[in-house]
Write a structure and sequence with these properties.
Shape: globular
Number of strands: 7
Number of helices: 7
Strand content: 15-25%
Largest sheet: 5 strands, parallel
Radius of gyration: 16 Å
Structural class: alpha/beta
């Protein structure tokens, strides 16, 4: 089962994967003012404060990628590490993105079922992070639908790929992922 899961997760990387910003962790010191401003935007989004700005950016990119097809695509987010963080980060954001694009809001149909360490806090046992299902999915809702996933930061893509794999197990067709930022370690 683990080998099949890993194969499925690896297969998710062949789908559309777009990020809007580059994220340089604080330990990367030689970044410029734009990179620092982007980092602050990312942190603000994670704290629920920059949802409108990020929703506007996301909507523009979704319209460029999918155009009028958006009305038949479910937009949903990779679950955060707790239900509280998930709601703070994604509830209003998802509503706003779908309002701007006319995509179908998947947020109400996926709920965090168990708290977990954030992926960056879970480095010791990536196998557990990869295989654990941390959300409950409304299978009836997702079955047969095209889904685009959103996540705040992609580093290795394990959270994205696991969520995509779980949604496909529900019968969804995951088109790919859009990310606020991708982690980079060199400027």
């Amino acid at each position: 089962m683990l080998m099949a899961m890993d194969k499925n997760i690896i297969g998710q990387a062949n789908k559309i994967m777009v990020w809007l910003m580059k994220y340089y962790p604080v330990r990367i010191k030689n970044v410029g003012e734009q990179q620092k401003a982007d980092r602050q935007t990312i942190w603000n989004f994670k704290d629920g404060r920059a949802y409108e700005q990020v929703a506007q950016m996301t909507a523009r990119h979704l319209q460029e990628l999918f155009g009028s097809r958006l009305t038949s695509i479910v937009f949903t987010c990779v679950p955060a590490s707790t239900q509280e963080k998930n709601e703070l980060r994604y509830k209003r954001f998802s509503e706003r993105v779908c309002e701007l694009t006319h995509a179908i809001n998947g947020y109400p149909h996926m709920q965090v079922s168990a708290g977990r360490l954030a992926v960056h806090e879970h480095r010791k046992d990536e196998t557990e992070a990869r295989t654990a299902q941390m959300a409950d999915y409304d299978t009836d809702f997702f079955k047969g639908k095209d889904v685009l996933l959103f996540d705040d930061i992609i580093t290795k893509g394990i959270s994205y790929a696991t969520t995509a794999d779980n949604l496909e197990a529900c019968g969804a067709n995951v088109l790919g992922g859009l990310f606020l930022a991708k982690t980079f370690y060199k400027v």
